[in-house]
Design goal:
The protein contains 16 helices and 17 strands. It is α/β, with parallel strands linked by helices.
Length: about 550
């Protein structure tokens, strides 16, 4: 049939960019062009579409292309195969109605088939069968994919096509090192710059930076090429920071699975980031873009009836002598609850906050001689604890051996008739209960011989001797991270900064104020490990 150069549109559809089933855009286009040339159709529109055809409501690209072609008066729609047109019955019915109304003529290249207003009902019936077959194929394929993904997720590997930024798929290999066609695992991206970008996003958020500032800083540090900056959104940053994948797990269809992929974000950074979510940040129109060092909700008002966030409120003033304009950094309560009748006298400058925090650092910094003396005392106490525990263990072992002998004696008495069966069972039950108690005590004593607390204490002491030097060498953001390790509950009471010391740094500060570190010996000394540990309050990961 010759169509005398009438306009036609072709819809080249693949389900995904990775499609390799012989139906790529290029293959379809070559066949369609040859077909149009053979029957004298003017191929005026070529729509390349990447989307699934199994649900009509999700085919937004196809629907838009179809409407555009019809609006341009194009009557001939050319598809490479039946399943390139549709794999659902809704689109099948919609296009049939257009054909019945004479608005559309459909061409199927691979079958050399044309469907038009005058086509026989048998041709429409054949098309219905194709649509139903394609729909069933999608249904079966979906079931297989879901089962396959579930099995892979249960084995600990992310089953999605696109892993989060910083990770890539790595193909599995056989015993000879040859890549297999199917099967992948998730590994860290070999591009270290991409991995470092993600790490940097987490580090900046751990410093309580808003997403907009994180984006600005990442761009400033050169992680984003100029061509990618316009596509680098704060929403993507937020999504990454909240993604469970970077915490060692992933979610598939509402079920959470533990992943085997490498975690390249340190745990303490993850914990700091997690603490920044769920808190409402307060912004004001007159606040500068950077919100100040302490303007991320780090400080709260100390008035018990208020408790609102403290925000950054810079003031720019001109120096009279030089005419130079200088910015003065102030912070004050947002007064969101209206507790303060006036904010006059309730502002504090940034320098005063740093001065107060620096004083707290000085209070917790102890001389090296003190650290050596405390370490020596801890070592001696620990040796006594270990000796006492070992003595306890030997006593428990001896008692257990005695119970075994009692059990043997009870059995002999039962055999000799000294004990009846009921008396024998009572004796054995009592002995077994004593054995259980002694075994539990033995296990507890063995577990108590542990050097972990001693190492933690030494690490804390090492940190306490270096606090001032660490403070002097760090940036403002890094200083805040250090402060978060040693102080808690910072509040602004008018112009006064108040805070609590975290354990054991409160003890260190008190020792420094008193000028003495060695406590008095109790009248009834006890060398239990719990007393030696009573001054420590941090885990190894907190230091």
């Amino acid at each position: 049939m010759n169509w005398n150069g009438e306009k036609a549109a072709t819809f080249l559809r693949v389900s995904s960019k990775r499609q390799e089933d012989g139906n790529s855009h290029e293959i379809q286009e070559n066949h369609v062009k040859q077909y149009c040339n053979d029957i004298d159709l003017n191929l005026s529109r070529i729509f390349r579409i990447v989307e699934s055809a199994k649900r009509a409501q999700t085919r937004k690209k196809y629907a838009a292309a179809r409407e555009q072609a019809l609006a341009e008066g194009i009557q001939h729609f050319v598809f490479y195969m039946y399943d390139r047109e549709t794999r659902n019955l809704t689109d099948n019915e919609a296009n049939e109605q257009l054909v019945r109304d004479g608005k559309l003529i459909i061409h199927y290249v691979s079958d050399n088939k044309v469907l038009h207003k005058g086509s026989a009902d048998a041709d429409f019936f054949l098309r219905d069968i194709q649509a139903a077959t394609n729909k069933n194929f999608c249904r079966n394929l979906s079931t297989k994919v879901i089962d396959s993904q579930r099995v892979k997720a249960e084995s600990g590997w992310f089953p999605g096509n696109i892993p989060p930024l910083g990770y890539v798929h790595q193909k599995l290999r056989d015993e000879f090192g040859k890549e297999l066609k199917r099967g992948t695992i998730i590994v860290k991206d070999p591009d270290s710059k991409i991995v470092r970008q993600v790490q940097r996003e987490f580090e900046l958020r751990a410093q309580r930076m808003p997403f907009a500032l994180i984006r600005r800083q990442i761009i400033a540090e050169g992680f984003m090429p100029p061509s990618e900056i316009s596509k680098y959104y704060t929403s993507g940053i937020e999504k990454r920071l909240k993604n469970k994948f970077y915490r060692g797990c992933f979610v598939l269809r509402g079920v959470e699975y533990k992943g085997k992929h490498e975690i390249f974000i340190p745990k303490h950074i993850i914990a700091a980031v997690d603490r920044t979510f769920g808190k409402k940040n307060v912004y004001r129109k007159n606040v500068s873009a950077d919100n100040g060092v302490f303007g991320f909700g780090w400080l709260k008002c100390g008035n018990p009836n208020c408790g609102c966030h403290v925000v950054y409120d810079p003031k720019e003033k001109a120096i009279k002598k030089t005419g130079e304009r200088k910015t003065f950094h102030y912070y004050h309560c947002t007064n969101g609850k209206g507790v303060h009748s006036s904010l006059k006298g309730l502002s504090i400058n940034e320098g005063s906050i740093w001065e107060s925090l620096g004083s707290s650092i000085d209070e917790m910094t102890i001389p090296q001689s003190w650290a050596d003396g405390i370490t020596d005392a801890l070592n001696k106490t620990h040796d006594k604890v270990r000796a006492a525990r070992k003595q306890e263990i030997e006593g428990y072992k001896s008692a257990l051996l005695g119970l075994h002998s009692r059990e043997d004696d009870a059995y002999l008495d039962f055999k000799k008739g000294i004990l009846d069966e009921l008396g024998y069972k009572r004796q054995i039950e009592r002995i077994r209960q004593e054995q259980l108690t002694l075994t539990e005590l033995l296990e507890k004593s063995n577990n108590d011989i542990d050097d972990a607390y001693l190492e933690t204490s030494k690490s804390i002491l090492e940190l306490a001797t270096q606090l001032r030097s660490l403070w002097n060498d760090r940036t403002p953001q890094e200083r805040l991270m250090l402060i978060d390790k040693v102080l808690s509950n910072p509040v602004l009471d008018g112009k006064t900064l108040r805070y609590d010391y975290k354990k054991p740094f409160g003890v260190l500060a008190k020792m420094r104020r008193d000028g003495i570190w060695r406590p008095r010996r109790d009248l009834n000394p006890c060398y239990r490990r719990e007393r030696a540990m009573s001054w420590t309050g941090l885990d190894d990961g907190d230091i």
